[in-house]
Write a structure and sequence with these properties.
This protein is an alpha+beta fold. It has helices at residues 2-23, 33-44, 49-72, 74-77, 82-90, 95-138, 269-288, and strands at residues 141-143, 147-153, 156-167, 173-174, 176-185, 190-199, 205-206, 211-217, 236-237, 246-257, 260-263. It contains seven helices and eleven strands. It is elongated.
Length: 299
């Protein structure tokens, strides 16, 4: 008799739990907007304010996923609206199931961000490798000691900086070469002049040991750099511009030879490395972050 009562008691407890779970598992319908609105009211009737907020967050996460699917899988969803895709994601799901879906989506979105960032890193690494290859190809010119001379400029003597780039390749170089010349005030890094010059034609031949020579007219006030006007004899060979608060950066920008042109990319290795560091830091942070609905704010 005792065993019979125990069995009956267990049966009734099981039935009670089943009924309770059933009453709490109203499901959302994604058949259409009207069905969804009606089913949502039924689901929310059994939820407290916090649970209603969580449901709203979860539905917004589902909507964001629908937007992603529409943009990134157009062949599969080209005939469906974002709203229709979103309704399909939550169709037939209870409150708890929708929250689980949202958590899964958030995790998936996190993984996609990491993949996207890694793709950016891979692209930058390729740019870096290409930059270094091109820079190596262009490293066939060597800056010779700087000369300083004076020239007449509308009746006034002004300094001119003579810059020679010596070709150190082993074979004659046919074609044209481009260089950039950036003259700065060393203490402030202010740019005094920024020039570019191209030497040679398609049939020009530069022999090993020959140089491409450019002249930079110094157009600054004499009172700011008086020493450049005060040498006893000109030209002055092997002048150290740093002694006069000047800095000259000469870069081989391009070499065009035999219908092949090698051009230095506009970006720099320093900038690429900075961007790589930022992306790697973002990935590290994302991998440590465990985002959930609780982290989201309704606005």
């Amino acid at each position: 008799m005792f065993k019979m009562k125990q069995v009956i008691k267990i049966v009734f407890i099981g039935l009670f739990l089943t009924l309770s779970l059933s009453s709490c598992s109203e499901k959302l319908s994604g058949n259409d907007q009207s069905s969804f609105d009606s089913s949502r009211k039924k689901v929310e009737a059994k939820l407290n304010d916090k649970e209603k907020a969580n449901l709203e967050k979860a539905l917004r996460v589902a909507l964001s996923e629908a937007m992603w699917l529409k943009m990134n899988e157009p062949e599969k969803y080209h005939e469906e609206s974002i709203n229709h895709i979103s309704l399909g994601l939550i169709d037939g799901k209870s409150y708890g199931a929708v929250l689980d879906l949202a958590d899964d989506i958030l995790q998936k979105q996190q993984e996609r961000k990491i993949v996207h960032l890694q793709q950016e890193i891979d692209s930058l690494q390729k740019q870096k490798s290409e930059f270094e290859r091109v820079k190596k190809d262009l490293a066939v010119f060597q800056l010779e000691p700087i000369e300083l001379d004076l020239e007449d400029f509308f009746g006034e003597s002004v300094p001119r900086i003579i810059v020679s780039m010596k070709y150190i390749g082993k074979q004659p170089l046919t074609g044209s070469q481009g260089f950039s010349y950036v003259l700065k005030k060393r203490s402030s890094q202010a740019i005094i002049s920024d020039e570019q010059s191209v030497f040679g034609e398609s049939d020009s031949v530069l022999q090993p040991g020959e140089s491409r020579v450019n002249t930079i007219v110094f157009n600054q006030q004499k009172k700011e750099y008086p020493k450049l006007w005060n040498f006893a004899n000109y030209p002055v060979k092997g002048i150290n511009l740093a002694d006069y608060d000047l800095e000259l950066i000469v870069t081989t920008q391009s070499i065009k030879s035999n219908d092949r042109e090698t051009v230095l990319p506009k970006s720099s290795v320093t900038l690429i490395n900075e961007n790589l560091k930022k992306l790697e830091d973002e990935i590290t942070a994302l991998k440590k972050e465990n985002i959930s609905l609780d982290d989201l704010q309704l606005t």
